[in-house]
Amino acid sequence: GIAVGVYTLGVAEPMYYYRGSHNLQGRGDTPTDDERAQQALLQTFYHWGLHAWGPYITVALGLGIVCYRWNMPLTMRSAFYPLLGNLIYSPVGDIIDAVSIACTTFGVCTSLGLGVDQIVAYYAALQNKTYTALERLDAQTATIIVMTLVANISVVLGLHKGIQVLSTITFSLGLFVLIATLFLDNTWFLLNSVVQSTGHYLQYVVQLGFRTDSFEQLGIEFGTNNLLWGSNKASKPDGVWSGPILDIMNNAQALRTDYNSSTMPFNYRTTFEAGPEWMMNSWTIFYWGWWVSWAPFVGMFIARISRGRTIRQIVVGALVAPTLFSFLWLGVWGSLGIKMQRVAELVLGDGTPNTDGSSSCAAWGYDGNAPNSTAAIALANDGYYAVACRGYPMLDIMAPFKEVKEFLWGLLLIGITLYFITSSDSGSYVDDVISANGLANPPIGQKVFWCWTEGAVAIALLRGGYEAGQNALGAVQAVSIVGGLPFTVSICFMCTSIWRALKIDSGDADICHANLFSTGTLDIFDLYKTGPADEPSTARYTFAERLANYAQSIFAPFVGIFKTCESLFGEGSVLAKLHGFVNFSFFVLWLVFLIVSGSDADYAWIGWTFYVFMALQISFIRGSVRTQHNIYGNMFEDFFGALVMYPNVVSQLHYQSKEPAPSNDVYRKPVTAA
Q1: Alpha carbon of 191 to those of 183, 200, 221, 395, 614: distances in Å?
Q2: Among the listed residues 5, 14, 653, the one whose alpha carbon sits nearest the alpha carbon of residue 331
Q3: Is 309:68 a contact under the CB 8 Å cutoff?
Q4: pLDDT at 616
């Protein structure tokens, strides 16, 4: 799937940044054309670098530690055992596995959609054919059916006989084409570009990692498509989404007589030389959604083949090495695209500097994606194109190689076809394993089911996008973001789970000698059956008692807070009463302001501010309880739990307040004989 992306975007992405009129300040040096070219490669490296491979290694480590060191099933819920304990066998674990299957399926479908588009394009180039939009869609559908059939055979043969053999062949073909293009063109320039771009990445990776395009996206608030949290109060009757600030600006500018009111307020990007506000959403967020949606698949696959390896070996082999190889791949092909574009501009341009990074395809002699001027046609006949004006630039960068270009095109076609197949069969294998609860060799019927399910979903997305009158690949890209969102949250929790697993394995006293809460915050998802998963047990509290206390925690959390504070500060103490009153005040004010927000929506945000303060108070009390009872945890966990599920936390604290506090006074502890 990653290789499918490189075949699809390896030239197109850096070219899009280089000649897409993008203002990429904050992402490196600006703005000479040399630095614009460097920015284009830097931004591409960022999307395919450490941040991209990070989710894979997180899942691989989370699964590998608990599955191979703790002898648990190789399924996604097992990675959360250090955090959730036996709750992974409850509906919570089922939800984790279901989300993982959905993410894997959607992630594979994204790569299948992108891959089949390239396969059809490569085949058309070899046959010198052109397709209408409908003909292209039919060809893509037929290709998916055929490739899914081949992938079905591979996944039935198993991991070693089918998937491993195909993966080795496809990697070798891609490496062959990469090295061949490196030798066939200006090798000195290409190697210099890769080294230089890697250095820029290492210098700016931290800055890029924290980049949110905050000031670029501020311009959305001053427009008519404002959906930003906190700035859009209501939609207009005509469906235009804008906040009150736009109305204020329009009313004020109408009173000016020194400028034409029809052109005011002025354009945000033009006035402040701001970058594109949609850059982050269209590229970076799409990439993160795509990479994260692949995390269950690739992470489990890495874990599956990494038994017996150390954490250092996995990090080097599955994070550092593939990142560097991606840089080589993208650096060579991206640099070739930029070089070809400059050749075209030297011949077809007017000799003036391209200061804004725009593409003037008509001025360069192009109509659509094809050259139509005499000079542009002559240049194309010799293998050079204005790559920024082309639809499939991966083929164009090999056109100057004359007699061997069709040989390389054929290898590209075979390579991306096999990568398409390996993506499908590997994704099907992972879906099989998860749905079979970690069974290494799932039933053949189940393998067939998942293989065809992925193919069918990819076809449905492509055809659905076309029928809706949109770009068919747009639906495929959108579903990767939808699939990646829930698993993004899961990966954050998985980091905590890995940390706890390593601390337990290393025998750290703060966690190994710590006590546990008498009840869990997520017990309700297991219907309060908190005993061991493999043997009968009697719960300390009945289902009715737990449910009644949970209801009380929802509608009157201050009761549980008061009882908990009495166990902390003494029965009837002033501090306990004060905490109970403060919690009651926050709770009531939260609800009151939500109710009165019907008259003014701003009151709702005042109410939610009181809610946050209530969560802060609950997290402080939970931290005090942990300290008193020697329970492992941290303030971030306390606050997150109180913020998103305060009734669960309050109920847990209420029951913990009934437990006797251990004595930590070493002078009063009995002395045992040596």
Answers
A1: 10, 14, 44, 21, 58
A2: 14
A3: no
A4: 97
3-class DSSP state of 225: strand
Give the gyration radius of the chain's Cα atoms. 30
How far apart, in Å, are the Cα atoms of 369 and each of 11, 364, 380, 413, 474? 15, 11, 12, 21, 20
Instruction: Tell me if 358 sits within 8 A of 17, measured CB to CB.
Output: no
Which residues does 672 contact at the CB level (< 8 Å), separation at least 6? none
Distance CA(416)–CA(422), nearest Å, equals 10
Instruction: Report the length, in residues, of the chain.
Output: 674
User: What does the alpha-carbon distance between residue 1 and residue 491 come to, in Å, rounded to a whole number?
Assistant: 20
Cα 649 to Cα 99, 374, 518: the distances in Å are 25, 74, 12
DSSP state of 515: B
Residue 299 Cα distances to 287, 353, 499, angstroms: 17, 46, 17
By percentage, how much of the chain surpasses pLDDT 70?
89
For residue 354, the tally of other CB atoms under 10 A from its CB is: 17
d(CA 435, CA 102): 11
265 sits in which H/E element: none
What is the enclosing helix (H) or strand (E) of 304? helix 286-304
Give tens-digit pLDDT for 325-345: 999 999 999 999 999 999 999
Q: Please say whether the beta carbons of 416 and 115 come within 8 A.
A: yes
Locate 416 and state its tokens: 């991306």
Residue type, 652: Q
SS3 label, residue 470: coil
Contact between residue 300 and residue 434 where contact means Cβ atoms under 8 Å apart: yes
| C-alpha dihedral (317, 318, 321, 326), degrees to nearest 10 | 160
Which alpha helices (H) appear in 349-471, and where do they start and end?
374-381, 393-396, 405-435, 444-467
In angstroms, the CA 267 to CA 511 distance is: 57
**Of 661 and 524, more confident:** 524
Instruction: State how far the Cα of 310 lies from the Cα of 315, in Å rounded to an integer.
Output: 9
476-500 per-residue burial string, b: 16 or more CB within 10 A, e: under 16: bbbbbbebbbbbeebbebbebbbeb
pLDDT, tens digit (0-9, with 9 covering 90-100), for 234-280: 555 566 777 778 778 878 877 777 766 566 567 777 788 777 788 88
**Distance separating alpha carbons of residues 130 and 225, to the nearest angstrom:** 37
Cβ-contact 65, 502 below 8 angstroms: yes
Q: Is-contact 277 220, C-beta < 8 A?
A: yes
* 3-class DSSP assignment, residue 77: helix
Question: pTM, whole model, 2 decimals?
Answer: 0.87
Cα–Cα dist 125/121, whole Å: 6
Task: State yes or no: cis peptide before 660, omega within 30 of 0.
Answer: no
Q: Is-contact 405 431, C-beta < 8 A?
A: no
Contact 165, 424 (CB under 8 A): no
Cα 136 from Cα 145, distance rounded (Å) = 14
Question: What is the amino acid identity at position 364?
Answer: W
Residue 211 has pLDDT above 80, yes or no: yes
Read off the tokens for 315: 């990090």
d(CA 428, CA 239): 42
Phi-psi region for residue 236, left (φ > 0), alpha (ψ -120 to 50) or beta?
beta
Sign of the CA dihedral 549, 554, 555, 558? positive
Residue type, 287: Y
End-to-end CA distance of the chain: 63
Phi, psi of 515, deg, nearest 5: -90, 175
pLDDT average, residue stretch 462-471: 67
- CA neighbor of 4 nearest in space, from 312, 395, 377, 420: 420
